[in-house]
Amino acid sequence: MPKVRRTRKKRPDGWELIEPTLEELDQKMKEAERESHEGKRQVEALWPIFRIHHQRSRYIYDLYYRRKAISRELYDYCLKERIADQNLIAKWRKQGYENLCCLRCIQARDTNFGTNCVCRVPKSKLEEVY
Fold this sequence. Notes:
Blueprint: H1 15-34, H2 42-66, H3 72-80, H4 86-92
């Protein structure tokens, strides 16, 4: 039987500032996971989960890179504990990927025709459909 971890790594300073927002997003994630998927396509059932995952990662990204409101230690803690998606944030830092909604959007193998997600198309190039 595996040992139970009794000691937890102490959370860095500033955690109490971001904790309420992260708790709220965790609650939304739990609701999205419990939501019924009857009558939805397989991919449609995952959309709310991807949206909340994006919000959580974007929140940490904005606090560290844009507003500079959290320390490097707290940012690293969030990445290490997988509160924010490290790979998605790495893509956001590259030119042309600033508005990426998830990593599945750039994987052409997940689509029928080898195309990208709509978030990869510049808004000026999108056709308006009414």
